[in-house]
Amino acid sequence: MTHLKMDRLFNPQSIAVVGATETSGAVGCEVIENLRHHGYGGEIFPINPKYERLHSVKCFPSISDLPKTPDIVAVAVPAKAVPDVVRAAGECGVPFAIVFASGFAESGESGTGLQDDLYRAAQETGIHIIGPNCQGIMNITNQIHIGFGSPYRLSYQKGNISIVSQSGAFGNSLLMGLDSEDLGLRHYASTGNEVNTGILDLIDGLLDDEDTAVVAGYIEGLNDGLALRKIAYKALERERPLVLWKVGNSRVGMAAAASHTANLAGDPACYHAVFDQLGIVYANDVGDMSDLVHGLKSARWGYGPRIGVVTVSGGAGIAMADRAEELGLCIDPFEDATIEKLKKTLPEFASFANPLDVTAGALSSPEVIKNALQCVVADAHVDMLAVGLAAASGTAALVAARVLAEISKEYALPIAIAWNGPKHLNEEAYDILEAAGLSVFKTPSRAIRGLSAPYRFGMALQRKEALNDLCQVESIVPKVKTVLLDEMSSKTYLKGTGIDAPAEAIAKTAHEAKSLARNFGTPVVMKLLSSQIAHKSDIGGVRLNLSEDQDVEEAFDEIATLIEKHDPSGQVLIQKQVSGGTEAIVGARIDEIFGPMVMFGAGGIYAELFSDVSFRLAPFNESEALKMINETRFSKVLKGARGRKPADIPALCKALSGLSKLIAQKEAICNELEINPLFVLQEGQGVIVGDCVAHEKLAI
Fold first, then answer.
1. Closest Cα to residue 138, out of 124, 126, 154, 122?
2. Which of 606, 607, 625 is nearest to 615 (CA)?
3. What are phi and psi of 256, to 5 degrees?
4. I need a surface site. Which of 37, 244, 282, 593 has the fewest CB within 10 A?
């Protein structure tokens, strides 16, 4: 990841356009026309050896002929000519090139070779490339639009939201969609194939921009999960939230993403888990992103999930309560003291529960509505406030707006307002709310969705110091070669993690197997011990519930036969069979994108029947491990569903945290490890490994 000089990118004093032309509709024409249309005050240098003048200014034959080094070279030539143009720009000291042409890695083998040439040109000269296969960038604040297509001719509402997108055309749609949702925008960039400057580089730079409050992004795939960790932590330090929309989550979507911008989409479950753990707010549509950004732009963070709901319509309160439950938020009852205060303020026919229906009549009295809102926000069971104004208009809307503006000054909690009163009839009220930094949502459920964002980000802020450990992971060795270890060797990695192992030994003869079984106490388990076969049960290499001498002898002979057939170097392993306990599956690996990760879910036969797992970046503490467990439906079984005795969840948390620290060690030799099953015993009895497979890195 490269730290970019964002001022020269978004506030260039001079721009050269290679491939400039006056041919209408051509990229080299539109780039210049769009700059002039928005009144760009810097210098524009058309470059085309065919002309002496273009667009009423001097035209230059090459970059080396320019009177000064421009901040940006906009490259509007066919793909085959791009590497030479970029190399020339880099050799002249140009810091940025924006490459519009397609026909690179997204188009197949020949295009990949061309993109490799472009990458080498950038590496050798130090120039940063936006693109290729992108549509450009915009400084919306200063109206510097460097790109082609009708979106670059438009003007947008100015504000503090910056946008980045790996798609050009769809990024434009995202830009226009957020603009239509009354979000003021600052900077926008499409990154295309990201030959040497990616979406994370741009996000990193935008987090340093004092005038950017929220960074929103459209992502098809990432290839540097360690950089994402650092950027997310930086967002927490700067208190500038990230709202990212990750697409390519279905099999069809993943294939389309790979062909679109030559990115691998990655495991969608990992992306969801990683974003949530790092405090990145996850969006899934333009409207959804709008609600989340609206909820964040005021920089009011929710440090708990409890919402106080105040409406002038009982129906709106019900809709808000439904949506809150869907999003994992709470609408808890008010304290008794709060209810007593409300009864002194509101008429008898008002509802004093949460949601609180103050009725439309309350809006006729500023004092009444203000007292009611103050009672609610002061309640110990309220972390955030949602207000439903329905279609209030005129004087009533003005009263509500003024009161809410006053409340926002007195209390720092997040406030979301659901109101669809006509804007042209209530301009003053809308202006008051906007000046107070309060967001208005078109529906009650969208207001609650908006509140979910400051809650997610606020909770990440509270665990910021714990998340700092995630940034200490230094590097990932890509596609490292590994060797499979047998079960006994794999278990050596579990020392110090809090995971116990059953008594076990290797038996060389049937007689020795009987002796070991008697020493361990029956029943025992007999297994094929092999470094060649990862899933020995698939070939019948596991025998359970062996209690009698004859059963042990027969099992030994059967597994010995399997050894001769499948792995002559294999051995027979005898283990004390674990009785009781709940079977879980735990995995730890160094992911090629995200680095060290841990997976947890239901084990044994249920591991393949149910997709009920959770993921975490490693390392993490036991508190984070508990959250990881609680994300699964399987957690209900562990807690003692249907009369079962509760399992030892504290021991399981210790084991998950221990594994996370093991896989995240800088000197870690283990690249991947799976325990299935991990027996979680009853409370106070710990956890025991049932079977374990590890992949050890080969020396490079």
1. 154
2. 625
3. -65, -40
4. 37
Q: Which two tokens stand for residue 84?
A: 């030479």
- Which tokens hold the place of 547? 């209690």
Q: Would you state the pLDDT for residue 450?
A: 98
- pLDDT tens for 37-91 read 999 999 999 999 999 999 999 999 999 999 999 999 999 999 999 999 999 999 9
- Please name every residue paired with 695 in a beta bridge, in sequence order, or none if there are none: 484, 672
Whose tokens are 């026309």? That residue is 33
Cα dihedral 167→172→177→179 (10° resolution): 130
Nearest-angstrom CA–CA distance, 215 and 242: 5
Mean pLDDT of 616-635: 94
- Under a CB-based contact definition with an 8 Å cutoff, are residues 233 and 471 in contact? yes
Residues 261-320: pLDDT tens digits? 333 334 677 888 899 999 999 999 999 999 999 999 999 999 999 999 999 988 999 999
Q: Is the pLDDT of residue 254 over 50?
A: no
Average pLDDT, stretch 534-554?
91
- The pair phi, psi for residue 339, each rounded to 5°, is -65, -40
CA distance 44 to 63: 12
Secondary structure class of 94 (helix, strand, coil): coil
Amino acid identity for residue 91 in this structure? E
Residue 588: phi and psi, rounded to 5, are -135, 135
CB 119 within 8 A of CB 155: no
Residue 356 backbone dihedrals phi, psi, to 5 degrees: -100, 120
What is the SS3 assignment for 334-376?
CCHHHHHHHHHHCCCCCECCCCEECCHHHHHCHHHHHHHHHHH
DSSP of 179-197? HHTT--EEEEEE-TT-SS-
- 396-414 as b/e, with b when 16 or more CB fall inside 10 Å? bbbbbbbbbbebbeebebb
- The CA-CA-CA angle for residues 30, 32, 33, to 5°, reads 60
CA distance 171 to 177: 10
Give 349's pLDDT tier (boundaries 50, 70, 90).
Answer: confident
Q: Rounded to whole angstroms, how far apart are CA atoms 259 and 265?
A: 10
Burial class (CB within 10 angstroms; exposed 0-12, middle 13-18, buried 19+) of 385: buried
